[in-house]
Amino acid sequence: MAASARDWSKNDDDGEFQETRPASHAGSWYLGNAARLSSQLDEFMSRVPNKLDGKDLPISGARVIIAPHAGYSYSGSCAAWAYKILDLANVKRVFLLGPSHTFYLKGCALSTFGKYSTPFGDLAVDGEAVDELMKTQKFSPIPVEYDIQEHCLEMHLPYLWKRLEQTLGSDSSRFPPIVPVLVGDLSADGEKAIGALLAPYLADHKNAFIISSDFCHWGKNYRYRPQLYKGLVRDQDAQWASLKIQPDFKNKADGSEPKDAEVPIHEVIKALDDLVMDSIKTGDHSDYYSILKGTKNTVCGRHPIGVVLAALEEMGGDQSGESKGKFQFVQYQRSNLVEKQSDFSVSYVSAYAVL
């Protein structure tokens, strides 16, 4: 049956949507065979230590993660870190927030599907939560064809299924439903407004949040190629304009400035990503937004991250402990170590926050 958008006024008797979104990227971006995919995910997670900083994994209360959404051959091993940390023991609902790659989205949008298919089985969409959010009039429906084409949420579902299975057992009827959200182009105030709406959900210990984002996209195709040139980081694709916020490449021993040739492009990429990660770790939404504006770093999930940072700030009074509610980064990878202008690279991170 052809997929169609949900009629918001017509649910079935159980209040559920009627249609199932197909696993449109299975067999291309990741393995479509369930047994082989399960083995691959197990292998990725086996490379992650069972303890981090003396804490057993999953880390208790770590119900918010940032993880990448590229093909598993590129970012699967990086994503394993966030998912092995993710605590799903008491979770009754999982929000998935990602950017729109298939259409321009101003604001935020919610899926019209009742289920999302994976090679392992179907994950139900929480129709009640979707309806609650739609009633705020701050969300629109994701057009069906773009929902199917979009990869950023789908790429997380096999990992989510695997971790739910490890936590709750093989009976998928016990798995919590998901709330798929695309976060589009938003101003700083727009991110704060959506963050305020989501803060009560984030504060509820029965909800988990998965933020889907890759980091710096460097290359001609991405129209972003900063490198150290004449002593400053400048972007070739912006007529060699210097970035408003500059990484510090000074020699720590004597404070001397390096020559351009002494700083390879991949180290510039890392420095720009470090600036963004450091701003996220502060928990300061304004600082984060300013860093992105000043570096123009091509973090594709910048708005989903910004919304959750704003929600965490909104919850600020409810957080106890210096590190509680603050993101910790546990993995950083690049698809390629760029040396020349014809190269390209995408960066990947895994991070978590304990609430």
| Rg for CA atoms | 20 Å
Largest sheet: 9 strands, mixed
Weakly predicted, low-confidence segments: 1-5, 8-16
Termini separation: 42 Å
Q: Please work out how many helical segments DSSP would assign.
A: 9
Question: What is the element string, with H for helices and E for strands?
Answer: EHEEEHEEEEHEHHEHEEEEEHHHEE
Structural class: alpha/beta
Relative strand content: 15-25%
**What is the helical fraction, as a range of percent?**
25-40%
Integer average pLDDT: 93
> What would you call the shape?
globular
- Number of beta strands: 17
Task: Spell out the blueprint of helices and strands.
Layout: E1 20-21, H1 34-46, E2 51-52, E3 55-56, E4 62-67, H2 72-85, E5 93-98, E6 108-110, E7 115-118, E8 121-124, H3 127-134, E9 139-141, H4 144-149, H5 157-168, E10 178-183, H6 188-203, E11 207-212, E12 217-218, E13 226-229, E14 232-235, E15 241-242, H7 265-282, H8 285-295, H9 302-314, E16 327-334, E17 345-354
How would you summarize what this structure contains?
Helix content is 31%, strand content 21%. It is of the alpha/beta class and 355 residues long. Strands 4, 5, 6, 9, 10, 11, 12, 16 and 17 form a nine-stranded mixed beta sheet that branches. It has a three-stranded mixed beta sheet with strand order 1-7-8. Strands 13-14-15 form a three-stranded antiparallel beta sheet.
